[in-house]
Amino acid sequence: MDKDNRALPLRIVTGIWRGLDRLRRVLHLILLLGLFLVLIAGAVGERVLIPQTAALVIAPRGVLVDQLSGDALDRALARAQGAPLGETLVRDVVDALRSARDDERIKAVVLDLDEMTGAGLSKLQDVAVELRRFKESGKPVIAVGDGYTRDQYYLAAQADDVYMHPMGLVLVDGYSRFLPYYKSLLEKIYVDYNVWTVGEYKSFVEPITRDDMSPQDEEASRVYLDELWGAYQADVTSARGMAAPALQQYADDIVTLLGAAKGDTAQLAKDYGLVDDLLTRDKMRERIREKMGETKSSSGQPDAYTQVSLDDYVTWLRTEAAPESHPNKVAVIVASGEILDGRQAPGSIGGDSTSELIRRARADESVKALVLRVDSGGGSAFASDLILRELERFQETDRPVVVSMGSVAASGGYWISMGADEIWASPTTLTGSIGVGATIPTIPRTLDSFGVHVDGIGTTELAGALEITRPIGESMKGLIALSVRHTYDEFVGKVAEHRERSVQEIESAAQGRVWTGSDALSRGLVDKLGGLPEAIESAAELAGLEKDTYMLDYVEQQLGFVETMMLSLTAKVLASVDRLVDLPRWPATVTQALSALEPMAFIDRLNDPRGIYAYCFCDTQ
Annotated catalytic sites, by residue? Predict the structure, then answer.
């Protein structure tokens, strides 16, 4: 008995322990199940419900781009933290407008442009085309804003009604191209930049070799800036029913005009015909609700209206309204940003990563044609040639390649474009800049100023010739100069071969000079004027595909299933943490100040194995 009595507590403890262990395993299983369900939900996403009557609110954030920059993780983490997203896909805006035109649930489009910071003119024109088509459906487009900058106003002008806050300002300031120049700074810190260029107008190295803009760069820039400004004025004044010189006079005579309006910038904009009414934000919402025919808002707020955001509408469009799979595809690859060697995240063009996308399209037998959307000022000549070769290999399968140029497709951007069966450009695309250059910094004088002196010996004339601590030897200078010249001749020769023109003809359009799409057409550098939709249609025709017998396939860098689930979980966790801890963020003014250093920042990113670049600082402000 005593033995049984002594064993009883042990059995009780053992039983409790086993019970707790089973409970632990059950809870562990439930936790894993819950985690799995969270991951699946994050990967699949929530279903978006579109109201039966709503306004589609298009509120672009940041810059309108052809491709979002950074990898998916960066964007997801930024979204989870509530950080402002600095980019909006043009494709999302265009596709949403096309769908909304025939969507009976969408009664109006509202353009809320306060958070849009900029866009290339060709991208604005692409969106404007879809806004005009949307208005043809009889539904209104309404623009609202606290004020309007140049690019914001371009889109606002396409609306049936333009509303602005009574304390707002319309600032249409034209186009400019101002760069920081560092020659004097580099002299002060004794940094020597060794530079080689071929092309009279090749100016991408000027920020480090000069303190001001060269006459050649000023000449070329003046031409294309005037053409961009002329196109902007023509589009906006036509949309608003204004006289042709109205915007030029508004910008040039702003002080006189504002004086007559007693300093009231908003009233000046209304009197000048730039906006239709001055309304506070609540009055804007009331006016939109009235135009939609709503007696009251579903939210219960008297001045609100039923709406669906661009993000939600695009999510619905890409999932529930996505077209069925089709055996025939036209593949679209976006090449946006600087061209760099190796693998690069979206927003930059990697010689290896972009080539891999082209190979994926080539391996897919259902892909009958390829459209390369180029929006780049160029970069590495070596990486550009790798991409060109992959496009040539695609063409060797007897399938066409068509290039659609975005706002900029210059220098290296033109290099990867030149072999296409057809090249399409917008009239306001900046292209050409057929020229190359190389730049290598050395700092022996900087070290000397600190009392550091480098000395030694080598076994050949080239030994140690590229050490940043030593001056570049004459043999190495000669080697680079001849290589740069050869690369330029090769560039021009390949353009002549692919464009079926003489070297002399291409040489006259080369020399590093930038052209608009319209001028490039007259010089034989592009084939046709039009946007991405026209290029896609043409590619399908070249492949013998009739309308509605193919689907678009955007070939992009992809995450695996596990990566997607982990990305979703990470984003959710970070969002929860961020609600508890207020993470600091860079103010917009700091970001803008840092952007002024872009020329030097680009030089720091250069990674061409030979140090030879086909690049153009031809973005406009």
Answer: 202, 411
